[in-house]
């Protein structure tokens, strides 16, 4: 990974970052395999250059961005975010990136745009997990946000972590980070961002709608059908008897910033 | 000490004193090694989860071994019957450690979460039911119980087929997606149960015809 020019941004979590080796060797990125160690082990053949990101759909200025032009044009800043996985573990990660809103504003969304649909790369020749037949995920990975969620200042497009460009296993060259939602919303290796009118399909929801909702807001009161979401294991806290567990916070502790987005919604049914 | 003897075309292990203790000892090594790694921070970023799954996997492996003894005897003629109890007990000890890790290391003894889990989550209800059914089998895995229970001992130990099916579903549910690992292990468990049913049915009909 190359060094990245970055400056401290807002939203410093005030917590100890998870060690870099854990952030880069404990990953869910099924395109490279299902084990947590698969992404770091099997991503050597992955090429994040050349790369383009298409911004289109319901916008007045669609554009195909070259990744290097995009990184040069955007104000890249460091943000220390908590990251809560739907599997009930968590990390604290110093991301480097820019607000998604900055990119979307440049594209000028039209009045009827309601949602943002994201699409990940499809390269079975470089991503062994996309070659195996026996899994129920459909490729490419797709995700979505409501437009107001996408425009929220917390929502980040990350191009690096720990002051370096993103390693392949963390979603090189550009990925989404939505810190108040479960980690699977953070789609990796993005090739297309499209503004649409209707709620777009999302990969995990398509696989099992009862377990993975569209919103996927971190919520200790709505349990996963197979495990409790009331607390989380802290990654990188040491051996068996290290840091252990902590209580999970509503909206992953970002309620002050984002609770307003969901004013009159029933978060039990819209999970 | 173990000794190999040539019997016709085959090399055979001669039974020896302490062989079952030795199998038990070797069988517990995967748990011991991983516990040592875990206690020394060598089990990666999420050690409790890795250990918990490792113990569950080995419980399934020994359950499979135990279930495989009879088909192996019928189909290949190799008789491992005298080790079956050890395989079963190893499956039981791994199940105990698997449950203990979940209760103590993973959930930190949080009774609220544990009660919710075993009353509301089919994944954990199945696993817990399998564990409960294993208990009477483990308790009666000794010569004294076999003598005392007589024909009831065999009936009681047929629980293992229910356990195998519960474990197969629990194992499938432990992964977010179906994959080669989960399908192979669960498939092997179900196959062995089906084989046993077919075998018993066939024996029953041939006996009636005789």
Automatic annotation (TrEMBL), chain A:
Alphabetic keyword roster: Metal-binding, Molybdenum, Oxidoreductase, Signal
Cofactor note: Binds 1 Mo-molybdopterin (Mo-MPT) cofactor per subunit.
Every Oxidoreductase molybdopterin-binding domain range: 47-204
Its EC number(s): 1.8.5.-
Catalytic activity annotation: L-methionyl-[protein] + a quinone + H2O = L-methionyl-(R)-S-oxide-[protein] + a quinol; L-methionyl-[protein] + a quinone + H2O = L-methionyl-(S)-S-oxide-[protein] + a quinol
Cofactor(s) listed: Mo-molybdopterin
Binding site for Mo-molybdopterin: 27, 30-31, 85, 120, 170, 175, 186-188
UniProt entry tagged with the keyword Metal-binding: yes
Domain of life: Bacteria
Family listed: Belongs to the MsrP family.
Functional note: Part of the MsrPQ system that repairs oxidized periplasmic proteins containing methionine sulfoxide residues (Met-O), using respiratory chain electrons. Thus protects these proteins from oxidative-stress damage caused by reactive species of oxygen and chlorine generated by the host defense mechanisms. MsrPQ is essential for the maintenance of envelope integrity under bleach stress, rescuing a wide series of structurally unrelated periplasmic proteins from methionine oxidation.
Complexes and interactors: Heterodimer of a catalytic subunit (MsrP) and a heme-binding subunit (MsrQ).
Protein name as catalogued: Protein-methionine-sulfoxide reductase catalytic subunit MsrP
Originating species: Komagataeibacter intermedius NRIC 0521
Gene designation: msrP
Residues of the full protein shown: 62 to 332 of 332
Automatic annotation (TrEMBL), chain B:
Natural source organism: Komagataeibacter intermedius AF2
Family: Belongs to the MsrQ family.
Keyword set includes Cell membrane: yes
GO biological process, one term: protein repair
The encoding gene: msrQ
Cofactor: FMN; heme b
GO cellular component: plasma membrane
Keyword entries, A-Z: Cell membrane, Electron transport, Flavoprotein, FMN, Heme, Iron, Membrane, Metal-binding, Transmembrane, Transmembrane helix, Transport
Identification of the protein by name: Protein-methionine-sulfoxide reductase heme-binding subunit MsrQ
MF GO annotations: electron transfer activity; FMN binding; heme binding; metal ion binding; oxidoreductase activity, acting on diphenols and related substances as donors
Organismal lineage: Bacteria, Pseudomonadati, Pseudomonadota, Alphaproteobacteria, Acetobacterales
């Amino acid at each position: 990974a190359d060094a990245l020019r970055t400056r401290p941004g807002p939203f410093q979590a005030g917590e100890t970052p998870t060690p870099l080796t854990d952030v880069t060797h404990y990953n869910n990125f099924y395109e490279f395999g299902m084990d947590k160690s698969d992404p770091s082990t099997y991503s050597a053949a992955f090429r994040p250059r050349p790369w383009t990101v298409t911004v289109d759909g319901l916008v007045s200025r669609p554009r195909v961005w070259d990744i290097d032009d995009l990184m040069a044009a955007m104000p890249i800043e460091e943000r220390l975010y908590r990251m809560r996985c739907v599997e009930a573990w968590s990390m604290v990660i110093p991301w480097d990136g820019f607000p998604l809103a900055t990119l979307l504003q440049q594209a000028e969304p039209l009045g009827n745009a309601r949602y943002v649909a994201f699409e990940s790369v499809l390269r079975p020749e470089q991503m062994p997990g996309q070659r195996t037949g026996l899994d129920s995920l459909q490729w490419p990975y797709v995700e979505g946000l409501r437009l107001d969620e996408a425009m929220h200042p917390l929502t980040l497009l990350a191009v690096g972590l720990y002051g370096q460009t993103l390693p392949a296993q963390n979603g090189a060259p550009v990925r989404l980070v939505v810190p108040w939602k479960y980690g699977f919303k953070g789609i990796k290796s993005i090739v297309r961002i499209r503004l649409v009118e209707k709620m777009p399909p999302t990969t995990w929801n398509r696989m099992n709608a009862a377990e993975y909702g569209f919103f996927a807001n971190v919520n200790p009161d709505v349990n996963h059908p197979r495990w409790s979401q009331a607390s989380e294991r802290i990654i990188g806290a040491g051996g068996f008897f290290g840091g252990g567990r902590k209580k999970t916070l509503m909206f992953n502790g970002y309620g002050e910033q984002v609770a307003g987005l969901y004013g009159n919604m029933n978060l039990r049914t819209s999970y | 000490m173990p000794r190999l003897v040539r019997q016709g075309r085959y090399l055979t292990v001669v039974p020896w004193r302490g062989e079952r203790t030795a199998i038990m000892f070797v069988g517990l090594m995967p748990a011991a090694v991983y516990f040592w790694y875990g206690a020394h921070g060598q089990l990666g970023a999420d050690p409790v989860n890795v250990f918990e799954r490792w113990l569950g996997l080995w419980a399934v492996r020994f359950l499979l071994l135990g279930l495989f003894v009879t088909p192996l005897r019928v189909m290949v003629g190799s008789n491992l019957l005298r080790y079956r109890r050890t395989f079963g007990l190893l499956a039981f000890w791994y199940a105990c450690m698997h449950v203990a890790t979940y209760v103590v290391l993973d959930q930190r003894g949080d009774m609220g979460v544990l009660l919710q889990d075993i009353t509301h989550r089919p994944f954990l209800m199945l696993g817990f039911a399998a564990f409960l059914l294993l208990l009477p089998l483990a308790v009666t895995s000794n010569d004294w119980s076999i003598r005392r229970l007589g024909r009831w001992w065999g009936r009681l130990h047929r629980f293992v087929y229910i356990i195998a099916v519960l474990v197969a579903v629990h194992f499938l549910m432990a992964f977010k997606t179906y994959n080669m690992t989960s399908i192979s292990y669960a498939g092997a468990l179900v196959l062995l149960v089906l084989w046993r049913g077919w075998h018993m049915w066939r024996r029953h009909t041939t006996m009636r015809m005789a």
